[in-house]
Amino acid sequence: FSHNIPRRYTNRLLLREIELVAGASSVDMVFLPWDGDVRNMGYAFVNFVTSEFASAARRGMDGKPWRFSGVPKLVKTVVARLQGLLPNLVQLREMIVRVPGQPVYPLVILGGKVVGYAEALRSIELDKGGSLESRQRRPPQRPARAEGESGV
């Protein structure tokens, strides 16, 4: 979602910034990868609950200065190729790093409350049915075509 993020920003600070323009409960995941030291890498992955929230955030933030930073950086938003909470959580599993003493996980909000990364995966798996690993191996299903519908 975003590039050019001030290096001192945290998941919670970025969430706060987004909620000011897109509204509370607009996001169900925020993740700023860390460099293994004590600061983020300058970009983030954000999953919005709806495309309308994502559009509102983009309109309200893109090209504008970061509110909680003394650095004159401007927000740069990008639409991600990967969409959806579960696909993002699965992909981001490889980006979790230990920062002096503890891992830095995505901030996940389910049902209006922050939940742990593992709890979020379990909860989504139960809601969707089946295990995470079995869905990763299964090719995506194409919707059935109506009679006479072309494949183009």
Describe the structure.
The protein is an alpha+beta fold. It contains 5 helices and 8 strands; from the N terminus they run βαββαβαββββαα. It has a 6-stranded antiparallel β-sheet with strand order 4-1-3-2-7-8, sandwiched between helices. Helix 1 crosses helix 2. The chain is globular, with a radius of gyration of 17 Å. The C terminus is likely disordered.
> How many β-strand runs?
8
Contiguous runs where pLDDT drops below 50 for at least 5 residues: 130-152
- Content-based structural category: alpha+beta
The helix tally amounts to: 5
* Strand order within the widest beta sheet: 4-1-3-2-7-8
Mean pLDDT: 77
What is the approximate shape? globular
What does the main sheet amount to? 6 strands, antiparallel
Provide the gyration radius in Å. 17 Å
Can you give the helix content as a percent range? 25-40%
**How far is the first residue's CA from the last residue's CA?**
30 Å
Topology:
Blueprint: E1 2-3, H1 11-22, E2 27-31, E3 43-48, H2 51-61, E4 76-77, H3 85-92, E5 97-99, E6 102-104, E7 107-110, E8 113-115, H4 117-128, H5 132-137
Antiparallel strand pairs: 1-3, 1-4, 2-3, 2-7, 5-6, 7-8
Helix pairs in contact: 1-2
